[in-house]
Amino acid sequence: MEASLQEGSQDRRVRRSRAALMAAAIVLVEERGTSAVPLSDIAEAADVSRKVVYQHFGDRDTLLLEAGLDRARRELLPYLGDNAPGTPREKALTVVRHFAEHRVFYRALLTGSCAFALDRGLIRLLLPVNLQGIQQFYGDRLTAQAAADLAAFVAGGGGAFLTTWVVEGDDPLDPEAFTDRLMSVMSVLMGALDRPSAPPDTKDAR
């Protein structure tokens, strides 16, 4: 019993330390507009030692990656789940507004040394949302593999479109206008895929 209590207390300390480090990383990156924040500064802001940072994350890039993904999980995914209200456009706007609101943070990470890992991580994070939308749109007209492949294609392409806007878009970012662009592209793509294939041209057949 005592050992179990000690383990529970240790787990809580680990969670608190990790949460404090990720929160400190977010604040410092946003304040400085760069991901090149010394680990010692993050540790000091979180009121832990550098040793604790290495124990939990190993290096700065991993800490920043986890901070970025944790922010998206906490502040974005709850509004995109199966039971979340809203039309596809409203949910897309929720995603776009999140990245626009936290542009300084995400742009710093997406132009820093953890950019590739964060980009891949965000795509994986949003992949189930894309898959859900595709399954709702196509129903049983697609095989499970085709739906998964299309979801991966949409998540990757849409993610690249969004991150390019976050990094390179003119200030101030306009979430409404960008969401319209995103939905227009998706409408063209889904409409093209939903049209039946034309029969083969046999007029020259012998």
The total beta strand count reads 0
Q: Label the overall shape.
A: elongated
Strand content: under 5%
Put simply, the count of helices is 9
| Low-confidence parts | none
Distance from N terminus to C terminus (CA atoms, Å) equals 85 Å
Question: What order do the SSEs take from the amino end to the carboxyl end, as H and E?
Answer: HHHHHHHHH
Main β-sheet description: none
**What is the domain tally?**
2
Task: Give me the secondary-structure category.
Answer: mainly alpha
Query: What would the average pLDDT be, to the nearest integer?
Result: 89
Rg value: 21 Å
Helical coverage, percent range: over 70%
Jot down its keywords.
single chain, 206 residues, mainly alpha, Arc Repressor Mutant, subunit A, 2 domains, 74% helix
Written description of the protein model:
The chain has nine helices and no strands. It is mainly α. The chain has two domains: 1-65, Arc Repressor Mutant, subunit A; 76-194, no CATH class. The mean pLDDT is 89. 74% of the residues lie in helices and 0% in strands.
List the SSEs and their pairings:
Layout: H1 2-32, H2 39-46, H3 50-56, H4 60-75, H5 88-101, H6 103-110, H7 115-138, H8 144-168, H9 175-194
Helix pairs in contact: 1-2, 1-4, 4-7, 5-9, 7-8
Brief characterization of the structure:
With 206 residues, the protein is mostly helical. The chain is built from nine helices and no strands. The radius of gyration is 21 Å and the shape is elongated.
